[in-house]
Fold:
Amino acid sequence: MLSVKKITLDYELSLSGVDNFPVVGWEIESHQKNVKQVSYQLQVSIDKYFDATLFDSGVISSDTSANVNVSDVLLRPSTRYFVRVKINDNHGEESPWSAVAEFITGMMENPWGGDFISAETSADKDNSKVTLVRKSFSLTKGSAVASAYLHVSALGLYQFYLNGHKVGNDVLTPGWTSYPNHLLYQTYDLSEQLQCDDNVIGAELGAGWFKGDMGFTRDRNYYGQQTALICQLVIHYQDGTQQIIVTDDSWRAEDSPILFSEIYDGEICDASLEHEGWNNTGFDGTHWRPVSLISFDKKVLTAQGVCKVKKIAALEPASIIITPQGDTVIDFGQNLSGWVEFKVNGKLGDKVILCHFETLDAQGNVYLDNLRSAKQRVEYILKGGAAEVYHPQFTYQGFRYVKVESYPGKIVPENFKALVLHSDMAPTGHFNCSNEDLNQLHRNILWGLKGNFVDVPTDCPQRDERLGWTGDAQIFCRTASYLMHTRNFFAKWLRDLKHDQTPEGGVPHVVPDILTGHCANDINLAEGGTHSAAAWADAAVINPWTMYLMYGDTRILEQQYESMKAWIEFMVVHSENHIWRYKLQFGDWVALDAKEGSYFGATPVDLVSTAYFAHSTRLFSLAAKALGRTEDYLKYHALQQQIVQHFQDEFFTPSGRLAARTQTAHILALYFNLVPEPFRERTVNTLVELLHEHDGHLVTGFVGTPYFCHALSQNGREKEAWALLLKDDFPSWLYQVKAGATTIWEHWDGIKPDGSMWSADMNSFNHYAYGAVGEWLYRSVAGIEADENAPGFKHVIISPVIGGDLSWVEAAYQSGYGEIGVTWKVRDSEMGKIVTLNIRVPHNTQATVNLSAVREVIEAQDMEMVQQGDNWTAQVGSGEYQLEYLCV
Ligand code: BGC
Structure:
């Protein structure tokens, strides 16, 4: 039986608020092998039974089942649409209609009728209090409500309420973007929630990233001085009439009991000041103060249909401990980003005070120093009476531990929960193997993602930073995209990267950019270099390219094309003889071969920069090719060749010695294909030598680490790659695991073998950059590799690197076409090691299976293996396969 298993819109099962018709994709289910779609038919309707079909594509001969563009439907704003699909395959089967996917349009071109309204005045600019705005209204009499959609956004953070209930389950909305250019609004369906007569809508507004205190310089008001709300509630009645409620001067305002809320410092709430029932009918708000209207460009409001921050999970305390210094500490057993929700009984004026932190010190005491100036403190003053339940709302904390400074009554685990917050993305990666430390590493990498994908990709979630550092996001992008569906997350962020680029194409160090023009940090001021560092700024090219590679999405290349090109041109302008240098560079950041006390690794900055110049230019030329922009493709392809040539002239001696004798220099040269072919072997040998000089340990920083294992395994040094991955003494990935890490550390020596710590100035225990080794687990250990000629895993290359004395690996990646699965088992036999490999290839895709170090193929069901020395290859269509072979 052929069927369409899952239909997605912009890669999601449903969308609430879009400005354009989403791309459609579907997964195919069949009991057959080698299934290929030969045609599809797609319908769009405004009723879910498709009685009133708006669009019917007719039968289209095509094998495309991902990123399908629907261009012929004229969408109306604030309307729900339904989409379904049926297909035919190469076995002559026809599927029934798929289940129905649905989406709601946003405001589209519709003008916003209201204004931004604020409960604050400019005198509140340094104020971090939360305010309330409310309005009551009645429905037009005479007809029943057919639909009601709310479009809402804020300057600052908002929580919206209708008749006493929070609208939607998103938090920290509208998120953080380059606000003057790109402010997201959310859309919610209130059709079922409106009351037939009186209704009340209202919102709480917090400072958030908009006007709050942000950045290590602790400046504030980056985007404005007053929080404000904008909304448009569009009610369609069954008789065809409509009613629109907007934010205007008829709203009323008041201060909330939340006296203080800031991203870094936490929240203070005095529940005794609560205005009970303020967001519901039956409350008299006439005495509240008037709102003021704020002018802000409404043209920058953009619909956000997906990928909002949500409460994703709740963790119970793992234990409650009393430290040697006598503090009561709740250990949640996992470093995470989010809130602590607590339940408390007490009397008016009693207090709960919680201090969130990441790690205990060597003596087992509370360690707050690495938070720098971030307080991460939540204070709640009880109103008294019945049990009270609270969690903060306009802040978030990065923590594993919570010090309970005050709490009336006994501290019992049942009264505390850690609510895990992150951007809502579908998990796509699965990795499990016979080595428990490696499994823990994988979990740590995943938690690094969760903790730092809180609306923007942050460097860390705990200290006074939490910024969208471009380098970190670039380094981790591919790993993240195996673990979770990151397309919509990065598409949002990349839009801001583009907006925040300098007119010349320079890329800020952090996106959204709050450093340029604000940075009082010594190094930045002295060098005047608050943007455009190699490997950091290259996020402009590498991240969109990675989205294309993983999801086959050309829209993101279109969206970012000019930004990508501007970045390449920036490097062209600032390079001399194709060797690129520019002001402040981070080089191989926090590498262990740095001079004592320095953050800058030993690999020369111009080598790192030029290597990235070549790499990004190559990717950009391929992006141009993918979009059919042949002229650009040829131009930038030629440029890339020249850069490589100059790189070789500058950094290789005539006899093939790479001038910089560092691990990172060799890794970059190999992984970015910058080594003259005759010198490849020598370069690989030197890299292995450099590894041995450190007893098999890495000394690499942000730039070299992600590609270390690849540089080895792609050059016949699989054994060394495995040995490097599995090292478990200092410095190594598993050293952290053995030290009890539950996320990835910023520094290899975050906690040193003697228990002392790296300087508290910069020592995060939840920094995903070194987690970039995750891509080696998926691309090499599991061997699930994308093909840049058939992106989005339309064609997958399966070539597992068996090794590390593992007896089994079980991995899967949920591609747009369905799950790609690879399982391998190794057993000893008299003849040597025997590998059993199980593969799952989704329908409508193909796979090339590449095996190396094969002595003899014992069994290969339904696969035609072709031998070339020790390497065996097979081309297969969809289905499940098993093969067994004897290793060399
Ligand atoms: C951040 C890093 C970032 C670096 C660049 C640090 O403060 O935490 O992750 O990439 O600065 O210099």
